[in-house]
């Protein structure tokens, strides 16, 4: 299975400014698989240790002495750890906080030994040891489920990938190719990007088997809840988990999660799931310029899930009966897909945060699904599950914020309208003149490139 993170790992390996790398991501998104594949292809010597499988390894890192740690590991595993041609991979490093702290000393004393660390609940440990973190001595990368491009590559649809990658405004747009990609997109909506689910579908073509994989992953996620606190806290996590999956794109209202539980307890559960990278929070902002966080309200947000296939499983959509699927949930799935693509297609060394905008006013309510920053510009992005749909909110935003260009993602072919007009129901507003870039949903991962091409 080809993952784009592997190219980034090669860049890291060759970088003259390389530091020990901590790879962050949710459970079962493929971190260990990708590191194994990268290591076996690019290093003469590869030592992988898993602290969850052998908790006695924690004692090796007590000394914070890199040379002693290397000697101990070499004696245990009989694999040499030499400068420049060896990779040490510490998996489930969150179980050994002193191993995280030791990365600072490896950087200072053994900078030519290549080290990668990863762990499923790593962010909780990083948060707890923040005052002892080796700041400036390590670097981070972020990994997610397979994005749509990786899904197509896994299905050996390289021609479709090349079409998406190479498309320009001057290109002829084939309706046959559009239809073919749209069919794969709908399949991705329900299979999602969890590597085991994708691999299972490729091997079996059986959606029931995919459901079993989703169920297994969900069970393992909920099993981890036991590590988060009391039994009552685990119940809050489960309530929030199911609420988020069934309310994609909707502002979180605590009373709708559990009216008998104090909002502070539910908020704490939400933040724990965010820290575990099970959910992403799209936070509200009043800003229309950078930085978007300047007028961000951290207490108002909409949920996205880690993976669109898991959303369908938690929403009890039976994959074995997709032909009879009602379309009421399509809007939420489209918004989940776009958000998931925007997050997964950001630079590997940055953690993409998403924002949305609302206007609450009598007879002029409006909501923009995403505010997307490209360079130093901010673009409003409207997501539509079909070909049709009003652009009232987009018009209000462009008029109020005095912006020129809006973006729509739907299931239609690309188009770019210049100097369009619209009437706005706002005080003292004149007729709006604007440009509209309209793209098919499956272009979401390449949105940054296409905006630069069209505008």
- Average pLDDT works out at 91
Radius of gyration: 23 Å
Helix content: 40-55%
Bin the strand percentage: 15-25%
Order of helices and strands: HEHEHEHEHEHHHHHHHHEEHHEEEHEEEH
Largest sheet: number of strands, sense, barrel closure: 8 strands, mixed
Shape descriptor reads globular
In short:
By secondary structure, the protein is of the alpha/beta class. Helices cover 41% and strands 19% of the residues. Among the domains are: 5-142, P-loop containing nucleotide triphosphate hydrolases (Rossmann fold, 3-Layer(aba) Sandwich), CATH 3.40.50.300; 148-275 and 306-337, no CATH class.
Walk me through what this model shows.
- This protein is an alpha/beta fold.
- Among the domains are: 138 residues, P-loop containing nucleotide triphosphate hydrolases (Rossmann fold, 3-Layer(aba) Sandwich), CATH 3.40.50.300; 160 residues, no CATH class.
- Helices cover 41% and strands 19% of the residues.
- An 8-stranded mixed sheet has the order 7-6-8-9-10-11-13-12.
- Helix 1 crosses helix 2 and helix 11 packs across helix 13.
- The longest helix has 18 residues.
- The radius of gyration is 23 Å and the shape is globular.
